[in-house]
Design a protein that fits this description.
Oligomer: heterodimer
Shape of chain A: extended
Number of helices of chain A: 10
Largest sheet of chain B: none
Radius of gyration of chain B: 18 Å
Largest interface: A-B, 41 and 37 residues
Number of strands of chain B: 0
Order of helices and strands of chain B: HHHHHH
Largest sheet of chain A: 6 strands, mixed
Helix content of chain B: 55-70%
Order of helices and strands of chain A: HHHHEHHEEHHHEEEHEE
Chain lengths: 302, 112
């Protein structure tokens, strides 16, 4: 009896499992098939209407050269490279000078008096790049005759999250900053690199400067600079008489010096401010292009 | 005699700085402050250095550079010399009238 019941159970289980299999197979069977027009045409044997979407032209070598030349010319004009070989050679020997008024017309139109230097956005690998640049820029712009609010307070504002770095303040918010701090313009600085490789004697840095008006939100001054300093002469001489906080001669002075030299070169053609006697009298003086690469190399080649 | 006159003349001509302000040890001080947290003793020494910059102004304009009085006022405020700090902030407004909004905002923040 027991055997009979056991066999019965087994047969029931077997048939039920077969049923499960059938049910799964039914569900998995595709109800609709998605095939491309080409495959459909293959199956049904119908001819697919052919659409011609390319025009093939046979061009001779001469004509091809002509087309390529024309394309190159158009690309050159689009790049702003319109000088011929002789002109390029001439300007390489005697660089073209641009007048300050033409290079920074808005600076002379708006004549900002006070400039707020935001805590620089440090994208370099050095931790103190922002401090180096902020210290040097504050001093350089003050000497050009502008009012620059306190540098120490800029550090405090940044540390207490009262004022963020250039990274987090969009240019469109310059107006708000102008109302809050009573300044005519805001300087945004981004430090891309500040480094010295162990195998090399040169120190390199690259940075970008945007001076934004707080009245109109226009860019008054823009400069992108790559700076290479490679001379046996130190870039900066620290005050040896200083009672306190002497910078580390190997680790800090070369980088601080580079920041100092770079800032001086970047603002060398910056229009003079209202506290300078040459204010508005330097319109016709020379000015550098907006994107420049400086290389100071005074190392002797043996 | 001629040599001495020539030497002194050249010293006068080339020795004079064209800079608007004399910064003394300003770079070093600001960089040191920006770099890290300073202890009370160091802040006192820092404010002493700043005193020199503020009280002995040189350069063409013969006034402290912009923002230096604010820096000094802040250091005085930290070292509990609030009256003198207020005096310095007012001095900044007198020297640079465009700093009024900035200084007033700072006064509010410091409760002066």
């Amino acid at each position: 009896m027991k055997r009979l019941i056991f066999i019965l159970c087994l047969t029931v289980l077997f048939f039920s499992s077969c049923d499960v299999y059938n049910r799964i197979m039914k569900k998995e069977e595709p109800s609709e098939t998605e095939i491309s027009q080409d495959i459909l045409a293959e199956i049904t044997g119908e001819t697919k209407p052919q659409i011609q979407d390319t025009n093939i032209l046979t061009v001779s070598k001469k004509e091809l050269k002509k087309i390529k030349k024309e394309q190159d010319k158009r690309d050159k004009i689009a790049r702003g490279d319109t000088l011929n070989f002789a002109e390029k050679f001439w300007y390489a020997l005697f660089p073209k000078t641009i007048e300050r008024e033409k290079n920074f017309p808005l600076m002379y139109k708006e004549t900002p008096k006070s400039i707020l230097v935001l805590y620089p956005w440090n994208r370099s690998k050095r931790d103190d790049a922002s401090e180096i640049f902020l210290t040097n820029i504050t001093k350089a712009l003050s000497l050009r005759g502008y009012y620059i609010p306190s540098a120490i307070n800029s550090f405090n504002d940044y540390r207490t999250d009262t004022l963020f770095s250039s990274q987090y303040i969009p240019h469109s918010k310059a107006k708000e900053l102008g109302q809050k701090y009573g300044v005519d313009a805001v300087l945004y600085v981004t430090v891309y690199s500040l480094n010295k490789n162990w195998w090399s004697t040169s120190i390199t840095s690259s940075a970008e400067y945007h001076l934004i008006s707080t009245k109109t939100s226009d860019t008054l001054f823009f400069r992108k600079t790559e700076f290479i300093y490679d001379t046996p002469k130190p870039a900066y001489k620290p005050n040896k008489k200083s009672e306190i906080f002497n910078m580390d001669i190997d680790r800090e002075v070369p980088f601080f010096g580079l920041g100092y030299q770079m800032t001086n070169y970047v603002f060398i053609d910056f229009p003079f401010g209202p506290y300078h006697k040459k204010h508005l009298k330097d319109k016709e003086k020379f000015s550098h292009p907006r994107i420049i690469n400086y290389k100071i190399n005074m190392r002797l080649d043996y | 005699m001629k040599k001495i006159i020539l030497l002194s003349l050249s010293l006068i001509i080339f020795g004079c700085s064209n800079d608007l302000y004399k910064y003394h040890d300003y770079d070093n001080l600001v960089y040191a402050y920006g770099k890290g947290k300073l202890q009370d003793r160091e802040i006192k020494r820092l404010s002493r250095q700043y005193e020199k910059i503020v009280t002995q102004p040189k350069g063409k304009r013969k006034v402290p550079a912009p923002g230096v009085c604010i820096d000094y006022a802040y250091l005085l405020y930290i070292t509990d010399k609030k009256d003198k700090a207020l005096e310095m902030l007012n001095k900044e407004i007198i020297l640079y009238p465009e700093s009024e909004t900035y200084v007033n905002k700072l006064k509010q923040e410091l409760g002066l």
